[in-house]
């Protein structure tokens, strides 16, 4: 399988330099990351929301090695919120954050990440929107869930992400499927050992459906993070069987992937939220997009051959 190889490359400084230097890379990266600054991204926000789509914004960058860098990540999100305030889009545009950006892996990282993410959640709430905590590798999840629980005491709309390929996730979903919760379900994009995660696609897909059924039958707000047509169809069936209205769940897909499907679902009355990343530290995010979906890798390789 190429996925683990690509994920290993995402942590290689040599591969980072090689791929960053390729002439075609910027053109391909722009498909997934449409800007480096808030000013770059504002026209994208206006365009997508004008088409009836919603967004979740991600300021890319996970290689945080100092508390000062973690504070810089916090400030980047606060600057984004200032711009969103001017746009007056409310819950149409929320934010997704990785706690590694807020210092989670540093000494005293749990407390540091909580201290840095709290003002972002508070500022988001002040303009009528919210924040979702992205899931990272399995070693970080207990800390992420604890921070999520703490933030929800004052801001219950704070969301979190769970990953279908992890064995623990079915139990996590049952715990999280409560009134007022917002939970995004994804397949998972990190290289995880066989001791903690399913390794085969068919096993992951079956787990995804089981977990989604739990979320749909619960009292929270499920967010279906998938581009898989079969899983999207199953999600619609499960929502119907659970008696959910169209505004009681939503679909989420990545910017740059299946854009026509974004518009189709929105036109049918579904809430369709586009995960839109921006920033200069794009490498790790880009490599995970290649690892998640073979078609993304083929697109990149074809571009390198034809344009390089």
Automatic annotation (TrEMBL):
Annotated residues for binding of substrate: 98, 288-289
Domain of life of the organism encoding this protein: Bacteria
One Gene Ontology biological process: L-proline catabolic process to L-glutamate
Record field: catalytic activity: L-proline + a quinone = (S)-1-pyrroline-5-carboxylate + a quinol + H(+)
InterPro entries for the chain: FAD-linked_oxidoreductase-like, PRODH_bac_arc, Proline_DH_dom, Proline_oxidase
Domain spans labelled Proline dehydrogenase: 45-299
Cofactor note as given: Binds 1 FAD per subunit.
Protein name: proline dehydrogenase
Organism of origin: Streptomyces griseofuscus
């Amino acid at each position: 399988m190429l996925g683990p190889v690509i994920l290993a490359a995402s942590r290689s400084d040599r591969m980072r330099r090689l791929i960053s230097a390729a002439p075609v890379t910027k053109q391909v990266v722009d498909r997934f990351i449409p800007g480096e600054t808030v000013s770059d991204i504002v026209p994208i926000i206006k365009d997508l929301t004008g088409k009836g789509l919603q967004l979740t914004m991600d300021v890319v960058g996970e290689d945080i090695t100092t508390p000062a860098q973690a504070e810089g990540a916090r400030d980047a999100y606060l600057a984004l919120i200032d711009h969103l305030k001017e746009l007056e889009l409310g819950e149409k545009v929320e934010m997704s954050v990785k706690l590694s950006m807020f210092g989670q892996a540093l000494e005293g990282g749990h407390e540091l990440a909580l201290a840095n993410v709290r003002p972002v959640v508070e500022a988001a709430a002040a303009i009528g929107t919210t924040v979702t905590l992205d899931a990272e590798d399995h070693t970080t999840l207990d800390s992420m869930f604890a921070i999520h629980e703490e933030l929800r005491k004052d801001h219950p709309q704070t969301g979190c992400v769970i990953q279908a390929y992890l064995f623990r996730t079915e139990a996590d979903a049952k715990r999280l499927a409560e009134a007022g919760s917002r939970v995004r379900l994804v397949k998972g994009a990190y290289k995880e050992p066989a001791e903690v995660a399913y390794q085969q696609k068919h096993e992951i897909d079956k787990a995804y459906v089981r977990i989604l059924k739990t979320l749909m039958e619960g009292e929270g707000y499920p967010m279906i993070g998938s581009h898989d047509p079969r899983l999207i169809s199953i999600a619609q069936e499960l929502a119907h069987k659970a008696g959910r209205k169209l505004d009681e769940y939503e679909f989420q897909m990545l910017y740059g992937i299946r854009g026509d499907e974004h518009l189709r679902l929105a036109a049918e009355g579904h809430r369709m939220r586009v995960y839109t990343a921006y920033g200069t530290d794009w490498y790790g995010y880009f490599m995970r997009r290649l690892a998640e979906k073979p078609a993304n890798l083929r697109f990149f390789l074809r571009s390198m051959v034809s344009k390089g």
